[in-house]
Amino acid sequence: LVERQADSLNRLKTRKAKAEEASVPDSVLNQRLSSTFGPFSASARGKEQLLTLENSKLKITFSSKGGRIVEVLLKEHFKMVRNEKRKDVKVPLYLMNAPKNRFDYTIPVSGISSEAVQSGDLFFEPKTEGNTLVFRAKADNGGYFEQRYSLPENDYTLDYSIQFKDLNGVLASQTDHLSLNWVNYLGGIEKATSYERTYATT
């Protein structure tokens, strides 16, 4: 109950922030974004898109906001829940779909008030190339920060890589590493240890 209330509160805060943003003149908003995001200010505005990669075992949903995973469906596995008739039933098994999850790179950027940009605050431009999904957050000099995901057929392995392209002068000097804030809340899959032993097969 507490978690649901927190999620509802976060949604209300998001709607309030969007309403306040809509009432701010573009010139003022652009100045704020420039101060906060610097060369990435154009990528700080956008509309979230949901995209998927899928094979015989997984269906992975991504958000262009942050270029991150927001849901994973395991097609060959299930979890057991008790329905309203108090009967145990199998339901689809989803992972990595908690609203509180975070997957943010801290990107050191020159000349901004916060000294760094969080990748989770940026809108990435998505592009699908076969079984590969590419997300790029563009800077105003034409460079970009890229995240690339590839899902082979009939496999549980998701290949992932990142790269910076033409961001000299955008990144803070002497930047030789990135910090990643990765928080993943896992819900219960089985009801109890004894129950898990009974229903260990899928």
Give an account of the 3D structure.
The protein has 202 residues and is α+β, with helices and mostly antiparallel strands. Helix content is 19%, strand content 37%. The strands form three sheets. It has a four-stranded antiparallel sheet with strand order 1-2-3-4, with no helix packed on it. Strands 7-8-9-10 form a four-stranded antiparallel sheet, with no helix packed on it. Strands 6-5-11 form a three-stranded antiparallel sheet, with no helix packed on it. The radius of gyration is 20 Å and the shape is elongated.
Brief overview:
The protein is of the alpha+beta class. The protein is built from three helices and eleven strands; from the N terminus they run ααβββββββββββα.
Number of DSSP-assigned strands: 11
Helix percentage: 10-25%
- Helix/strand order: HHEEEEEEEEEEEH
The 3D shape can be described as elongated
- Portion of residues in beta strands equals 35-45%
Number of helices: 3
- Rg, Å, rounded: 20 Å
Strand arrangement, largest sheet? 1-2-3-4
Average pLDDT over all residues: 85
Helix and strand content put the structural class at alpha+beta
Distance between the termini: 29 Å
| Main sheet summary | 4 strands, antiparallel
Spans where pLDDT lies below 50 across 5 or more residues: 192-196, 198-202
